[in-house]
Design goal:
seven-stranded mixed β-sheet; Rossmann fold; five-stranded antiparallel β-sheet; Elongation Factor Tu (Ef-tu), domain 3; about 30% strand; alpha/beta
Length: about 300
């Protein structure tokens, strides 16, 4: 069991969890992730390690409550425990002295991009960070990203905070303004990452994207995260999650990312319906008790 040492609300449906996992801390590198299972009957989901603390032996994950399991995770609080946290998994980010690096985070992708921004800054790169969100209340980790950056630009879709517009508009403005960019890392919604790739492609600026949104099993066993990169089939979880954005087939990626949408919605609907009847069902220990009574074949 892995104890939650801190829980903190970052934005609506987005929560930071600091988890005691000293063995993972020793091996973790920027860009890697863990597989989390809340309880015996729960699914295994991959979540990027946003930060770690070697002194206290903790890792930090940021969870956006979208489906059943992420919403269940976000119900947990300090002192609760998670059954399984496995990792670190995946290939770490390529961190070296590039020169000027632009790190782009869209929505909760900011938490995934943040550790690489830190690592890039530590090895001597000039780091320009661009953080995007729908509105001011969805801007997360601004202070942390600022501390790891030489420059920080915040963009909101509605202009309620920072500058009005998309992260791609700020990136385009930097390029057109003569900023010499040697490397770009973009992490966020798939359409955003695709748009970033199209901004940098004409200039031949090396661009990396993280395909963690498509990961399912996290170990290469299920095949659910197959992606086409440079015309070849790769697995986001074991070959990535980071790939050359200009080689990624985004059209195929979008289709595959929607593959389990109906199953995910059914599981979420059952979970929310059960929660309305019995709020205690939100706690994993209560779920375990209920499932042990009815048998695992009836577990949602």
């Amino acid at each position: 069991m892995f104890a939650i040492k801190e829980d903190r609300e970052l934005a609506p449906n987005i929560k930071l969890l600091r988890i005691e996992a000293p063995r993972i801390v020793k091996k973790r590198q920027a860009g890697q992730f863990v597989i989390v299972r809340v309880h015996d009957h729960g699914e295994r989901i991959p979540l990027t390690i946003a930060d770690s603390d070697t002194e206290n032996g903790t890792i930090t994950i940021v969870v956006q409550g979208v489906g059943k399991t992420t919403k269940l995770l976000n119900r947990l609080t300090t002192g609760d425990q998670i059954l399984d946290v496995v990792g670190p998994l995946g290939m770490p980010s390529e961190v070296k002295l590039f020169g000027t690096v632009v790190v782009i985070g869209g929505g909760v992708g900011t938490a995934i991009a943040y550790p690489t921004a830190v690592a890039m800054h530590q090895v001597g790169n000039r780091v320009i960070s661009i953080v995007g969100a729908k509105t001011k209340e969805f801007v997360i980790l601004e202070d942390e990203v600022r501390a790891a950056s030489d420059e920080l630009f915040v963009m909101t879709d509605d202009g309620s905070y920072g500058a009005h517009g998309f992260v791609t508009q700020k990136l385009q403005a930097l390029i057109e303004g003569g900023t010499s960019i040697n490397h770009v890392l973009a992490i966020g919604p798939i359409p955003m990452m695709k748009a970033v790739a199209e901004v940098t492609r004409p200039k031949g600026i090396p661009t990396i994207v993280s395909l963690n949104p498509i990961m399912v099993d996290g170990t290469g066993m299920c095949g659910g995260c197959r992606v086409l990169v440079g015309g070849e089939t790769r697995f986001a979880c074991v070959d990535g999650p980071e790939f050359d954005a200009h080689e990624v087939d985004f059209e195929t990626l979008v289709q595959r990312n929607r593959q389990y949408r109906s199953q995910e919605m059914k599981a979420l609907n059952r979970f929310e319906a059960a929660a309305e009847i019995d709020s205690d069902a939100l706690k994993p220990c209560e779920l375990q008790r209920k499932y042990s009574e009815v048998g695992p074949q009836h577990a949602p």
